[in-house]
Amino acid sequence: MGGVFDPIHYGHLFTAEEARVNFRLDKIIFVPCRQPAHKRENNISNPECRYLMTILATSNNPFFEVSKIELHRSGPSYSIDTVKEFIKKYNHKIKIFFITGADAFLEINSWYKSEELIKLCQFVAATRPGYDLNKLDQRFKKIIKIMEIPPLAISSTAIRKRVREGNSIRYLLPYEVEEYIYKNKLYQ
Ligand code: ATP
Ligand code: MG
């Protein structure tokens, strides 16, 4: 599961856990990107902070891992490079499920080398409030797995805004991540 994870929240964690159980996955690897290929307007937190928050959020789940694969690669973080590296690392003996939320998958056409990427792994698109997977091309609907999950209207953008405006973010993300945000004065 790739992401900016700025910060990681229960929307990510719940989606990952649902995918793990539904598709009987051996493990979930969270892959924070170094530099998102799709730039967001405001600055993103430095990769080390986002990586550490992802570690804090996942360390109590034995099936969850965090990879630094994209943090070590310079330039924009392209998923295709990551997937290829994983295939090589595991000697072609694995099947990769690429977990995304509806919003991310709806933009798949704009991803770098998306045609090649969707052939290399099994895409999973989790439902997400505000994004309609029915809009997807029939072609994509046939090859991806759509995963219906209870709607969690949590986003990193909303969490950053809440911190900036002094509103509580408790229960939207793990407490350890919340503490990290305040201790390091992120999003202020
Ligand atoms: P931002 O608001 O900064 O874009 P985000 O909450 O969308 O942050 P990302 O790091 O962009 O988080 O998302 C990583 C992946 O997790 C994407 O595939 C995204 O679609 C998915 N995702 C994030 N939040 C949810 C959610 N609440 N439900 C389902 N999928 C989610
Ligand atoms: Mg996003």
Summary, kept brief:
The protein contains 8 helices and 6 strands. By secondary structure, the protein is of the alpha/beta class. The protein has one domain: HUPs (Rossmann fold, 3-Layer(aba) Sandwich).
Give the distinct bound molecules: adenosine-5'-triphosphate, magnesium ion
Overall outline: globular
Strand content: 5-15%
**Average pLDDT, to the nearest integer?**
95
Head-to-tail CA distance between termini: 27 Å
Given the structure, what is the number of helices? 8
| Extended strand count | 6
Placed side by side, the strands forming the largest sheet appear as 1-2-3
Main sheet?
Answer: 3 strands, parallel
The CATH homologous superfamily is termed HUPs
Helix content: 25-40%
> How many domains would you count in the coordinates?
1
Please write the string of helix (H) and strand (E) elements: EHEHEHEHHEHEHH
Rg, Cα atoms, Å:
16 Å
Which CATH-level-2 architecture?
A: 3-Layer(aba) Sandwich
CATH fold-type name:
Rossmann fold
- Residue stretches low in confidence (pLDDT < 50, at least 5 long) are none
Please give the CATH class: Alpha Beta
Assembly type: single chain
InterPro entries: Cyt_trans-like, NadD/NMNAT, Rossmann-like_a/b/a_fold
Family: Belongs to the NadD family.
Enzyme class: transferase
Domain Cytidyltransferase-like: 2-162
